Task: structure prediction
Amino acid sequence: MNIKQAAEQSGVSARNIRYYEQAGLLTPARNPENEYRIYSQADVRALKLIRMLRMLDLPLPTIQSVLRGEQ
Result:
């Protein structure tokens, strides 16, 4: 799915999705033909978790630890 579809399914804006990618919280696959991002259902679940943890005011490094399974 593309970034628009991932944003709709996760409730996270496309702008925030790009920000989370730059912060290293999310790494979607890339289409080899055109380098577009390809989001999986696992990416959408991660975005939903990120959104929930941000609502709890957790900082990004802590969220990254949670996503890695360290916390």
Notes: The CA atoms of residues 29 and 38 lie 5 Å apart.
